[in-house]
What does this fold into?
Amino acid sequence: MTGGVTNNNNNNNNNTSSGDTAASRWVQKATLSDARRAVTTVEFAPRHLGLRLASGSADGVVRIYEALDTMNLNHWKLDGVIEAEVEETADNNNEAAGQQIIMNIGDNLLSSNENMGVSSLSWCTGRFEPATLVVGFSSGRASVYRYDEGARSWLEVIRLPNHATANGVPRGVLDVAWAPNVGRSYHLIATCGKDNRLKVHRVKRGRGGKGEEGGSQTAASSSLVYEGTEDLDHSEVWRCQWNLTGTVLASSGDCGVVKLFKVRL
It folds into this structure.
């Protein structure tokens, strides 16, 4: 699969100032131009998956790129596509791809185009797991996707509980973070959204059906099982980040402080 990759070697001299020696050390190697709307998030894959990069955009698509040669960053291929929000919109029987469906939610009018898009993503860093991502959307949804070797495609394996108001109105996901797994038999995923909630979701390895607290799974999720979700904070949280061992979660927001959370032993 080939993507919109541009070799930028010919433009190197135009992008740097002759008098700025620090800037001249950085060279633009490639441009990945497949997204049809704004690119909202990017993240490199963990080392054991090779030199891969995932990007999410406002067109509702996650694109995974892989460097053809780790010693030559001029050439990247589009290795996978997750058309998450695009597929969901199609399932709702929109008459045309560019059509705007107006939904009356309370006193607000929201366009379906404005309510689409990938807001954040995070890779699973477990060395014994296949390529796996958690993706947050401006629609309030957060889903876990895993690459299936048999189907040769990315499949949604778990849909985590939505971020929404007490009345059920969807609120966008602002950030997601997959905790590093150091000796645990389960995974922890943090999400925060415009509903003023910071959540930690627990996912374990194994086989199973439905989750207990709103998480749902597809037939492809034979190796991951949703266990539950815990609300940690009800203030306005914009970003969340785990420490290197996945035991401490930090959050930041409009309140002007950084909060740290750790499991009580």
Summary: The mean pLDDT is 81. Residues 84-91 form the longest helix (8 residues). The longest strand covers residues 72-82. The chain has one helix and 20 strands.
